[in-house]
Each structure stands twice: as C-alpha cells, then as structure tokens.
Amino acid sequence: MLNLLIKDFKLIFPTQKDLKKRVLSSIFYVLAFVCFVALETFLFYRILSEIKNYQNAPIAFMTLFLFVVSIGMIILGVFRAKKLLFNVDDLRQLTNRPIKNNQIILSKLLFLFLIQYVTSLCFTFPLFVSYGIVMNKMIYFYYLALFYPLLTFIYEAGIILLLVYPVKIFMDYLKKHLIIQFVFTILILFGFCFLYSRVLNVFIQIVAQNQLDSLLNVSSINHLIHLKKYFIPIHFLADVFVLSTSIELLYYLCIAVGILILGLTVGIASFNYFRNFHIQSHTLPKKEYQFKEKSVVHGLIKKEFILLFKDSNYLLSFTGLLIVQPFLVYLVIAAMNTIFQSGVFLYYTSMLPYFIPFLDILILTIFTLIIHQGANNYLSMEHQQIRIVKMIPVPFQLQITVKVAIPFFLS
C-alpha cells in the first residue's frame, strides 16, 4: 500500500530532472499559494470586522467563503482524480504486476483524500482562525476546525467521482479537435481574467479607496443572509462548526453519504471499464495509417500546433497565456498604481517619485519571465527529434520563421 501511495504521489507531482528548475518552480508555486491564501484571509478578516455586529451576517459570509472554497476543491479534485484513475501509463504498469484491483482503488482513493484534506485545510483553517479572532471563540473552536475538511471530503469526493469520467471523455474529445480545445481554453482564461478583475476591484476598494462600507450595505448583507440557505450542503456544516448545532450534522451526513455512495459506484465502475477497455484495445491490431502528401509549410505548421496543443497543462500555462497575459498585466499594474497613488501610500510614494515606474517595470519583468520559461520549454519540447529537424531538407530559416511566427501571432 505504501509503495502504491508513493507511486500515486509521483503521478500527481512529477519531478523534473533539472534541480534548478525544480527549486524555482517549487518556490514559485509556494509563493503564489501563500499570496492567494493571504489575500483570501485579508478580505475575509476585513469584511468580518465590519459586519460582526449585524445579526446572522458573520455566519452568512463564512458560509459563502467556505462554499467558494468547496467549489474550488471539487474542480481541483476532478483533475487530480483524472490523473490518478485514468492514466494509461500507470494502468499499463499496474496491469503487469500481481496487485489486486481493490488495493489499487483503495490506494488511489486514500491518496486523493490525503491531498484534498491538506489542500482544503490550507484554505479553510485561516478562515476559521479569522472568524475565531473576530468573534472571540474558545480554543476548542480552532481544534474542531481541523475536522472540517474531513467532513467536506465526504460529499466532495462523491461529486468528484461522478464528474471525473465525463470530464475525461470531454477532454479526450478536445484533444482530438485542436481548434475547439484552443477556443475552450481561451474562454476559460478570459473567464478567469474577468473573475480576477472583479476580485481585484474589491481589493482596491477596500485597501486604496476604503469603500468597504459602500460594498457592505444593509441590502447586500440581507440578500446574502437570504442566499445562505441555498449553499447546500455547506451551510449545514457551517452551522455545525460555527453555531455548535447538532441536527444540521445529521442533515449533512444524509446528503453527503448518499452522494458519496453514488459517486463511488459510478467512479469505480468507470475505472474498471476504462482499465478493461485499455487492456483489450492494447491487444487489438493497430490500423495502418495512410500518409497524405502535404506541403512543407503545412507540415511545419502542423508540427508546431501539435507541440503547442498536445498537453492541456502546457496549453493553460503558455499557449493560452500568450493571449491573456496583456490583460493580466494591465489589471495588475492598474491595481498597483491605484493602491500606491491613494490613501496612506500616497505620502510614501511622494517621497520616492520613481517608485511606481520601478514597480511597473518589476511586474512586467515577472510576467516576461513567466512567458520566457514557457518559451524555453516550447523550444526544447522536440527533445531527440531535433536531430531529425536538422537532417530534413528544409532551410533552417523557414523552420525558425514558422516556429517563431505562430507564438508571435497568438500573442
């Protein structure tokens, strides 16, 4: 079981051979995660400090934040479960070893629980700490908060297992249709930019313009209190952990256990079907591929698009980022300039007139380095095939022009 868990860990967190890249990527992800949690905690603490005197308002905002975190955990869990359950190379290795099917499924579910619990705890525990500080909770409140991700995993795992196989089928469809995949990715990235701009706007109004009171008026608070009952089943758990009620725990368990049983049934059946289908398809004779004569430029363009679109993770990290990065840079620079040109920061920046231009240059440099890292990976993705590229009777000027022109066009 321990070896299976280690194998699943390497499957979710593949290590790079280059130690320098491994360290830099780890530092970047840790800093990004810490900044996101800090922003989440800061917004929640400021809002809670302003509305703590309104009846039922603190628990309503607590439920809202926990509900958003739960949705994020479900989305993250679906992609993690897809890697764990439907990885072809992993199934090929496990098929050749005398390991029982129930041990494989149990190890993958156990690892999914561990990684989901740790991630959820990192997002939710700061919220409970902030709530406890503002509302003067006893010490046992913080201890009970450690068990919150354990209970939320019951229903989150059920939804994850229900969605993972349809998501896999949909992603396989996108891989076969590169144009649809690209359009879908761009829509996701632009949606992320829109949501990011809204959150950033709220952050600016709180920090720079001190307009929290205008955002949290009586009508908006009453509207959120009314919506709290629709955050099913999170509002049951919020009442249990915050208000120390017990009957809501029974309601939650009835809903969550039912979803979990349904999810386990569908998820395990999908895993067994995919595993058996993969074994059968692996033994079938492969169809002969009929080559069609195309022009040299068409072949080079097709090769570059395959490199750009063959990996969905790479599509989000580099190809799609080429298009949306100008919008992200504009949002971040505009937000930083607004913050440092108003309020108490204006006094300090007036003594350092070149601080804001240097800050803008720093932000541009950071985003440029992100794209630069993706460009380096893009240029080195051909690996051993670079020898073939050098040997084919095509002028290197044409190859370089096509390789540079496509990312330049996307940007």
UniProtKB/TrEMBL annotation:
Keyword Disulfide bond applies: no
Membrane-spanning segments: 27-47, 59-79, 109-134, 140-165, 177-197, 249-274, 314-340, 352-371
Keywords carried by this UniProt record: Membrane, Transmembrane, Transmembrane helix
UniProt name for this protein: Uncharacterized protein
